[in-house]
Amino acid sequence: MTNGGAAPKWEIIKDGSAPTQPYVLAQVSSDPRGNRFPLAIFDGLLVRDSDVSVRMKPVSGHSDQAGGVVFRYRDCNNYYLARANAIDGSVVLFKVQDGRRTALNAGVHHDIPLNAWSILKVSVRGNRFQVYVNHRRILQAFDETFSNTGKVGLWTVGDSVTYFDDFRVYPK
Fold this sequence. Notes:
Helix content: under 10%
Distance between the termini: 27 Å
Largest sheet: 7 strands, antiparallel
Number of helices: 0
Mean pLDDT: 93
Strand content: over 45%
Shape: globular
Radius of gyration: 14 Å
Number of strands: 14
């Protein structure tokens, strides 16, 4: 799914650097329009409280080199997002409500290397969300907008080409 721009193109491809060889899920289409948010949603599970993690590798992009973990997803216009961006080295928690993305915190500066794997994890308990990069907690936020169960998934933006591997969900 996307919020405008070219259709996303999710593919399973081989990547010799993948932590769990040999395949990764990759969003490989690039469209520089900033309002484009390709989503890959896992339909097989609804969770409220959970730990959701993925290894992500930003591969390319001129305006964005980002990826993220989606949780408590209701539809393409209503969900939470933990996003990491290699261009500006930031990690931010967002709420997407009625199609508008709002930061739940100021975000933090954290090195997200291009063409290298990082682990992005969000721990969700009630209205508290904690984000970890490479097993280190780097930020926390609170919000009660979406308090029920929802789906989980992956996210990219604009012209980001991003690879994902080892997607895990642990209901709590």
